[in-house]
Task: structure prediction
Amino acid sequence: MMLRLGLVIPSSNTTMEYEFWRLASGWATVHAARMRLRRVTPSELEAMERQVLEAASRLADADVDVIGYGCTTGSLFRGVGHDREIVSKIEEETSIKAVATAGAVVDALRALNVNRVCVATPYIEELNKLEKEFLEGNGIKVVEIAGLGVVENTEIGRLPPTTSYELARKVYRPEADGIFISCTNFRTIEIIEGLERAVKKPVVSSNTATFWAMVKKAGVKRGIAGCGRLLQLL
Result:
């Protein structure tokens, strides 16, 4: 029987399902429920979060094995512990194991021994500041963080993978243990392997971290080659 991965994602996200289907090809299926969001700002993220339980309940009807709250800043903008609150609410509502992207990123960086990280994002400065505070509040030093200042989420989804690669190279500092490319709508899986070869350090994206955490929480062991060191740990 195939593993069923359930995603709760912003309505304007056009990347996460695509990347999950590529990673899960042949052995898992991907099912998504959407919450309204058009602009990546704290106020819209807050409004979106109020829709999480309804969306998660719809995924429960599909009898998914694990539910992922697929939004990075949407699971950290309230600070340390925000991700765990979302996970607890979903699990209490559905009785299904859950993961939130922000917490998955922290767990992934720890699994790779990345204690000092450079962060590339498509976000505005206000969200970069909140992300830095969240990571450092979880014991991960942010050596450098840079964003593209994009607010419209559909614009983020239209950016080619080369954009995330170039931004990550620009933000990288040799004293860091690795790179984190943030945002579940920012295309990355095509460039992670090459980026790791270039900097000789682990590279984690929001989507690889969420996928890794969900599959791990479902109890499945199936390493994936070609998309970075993290997914080889499965």
In short: The mean pLDDT is 97.
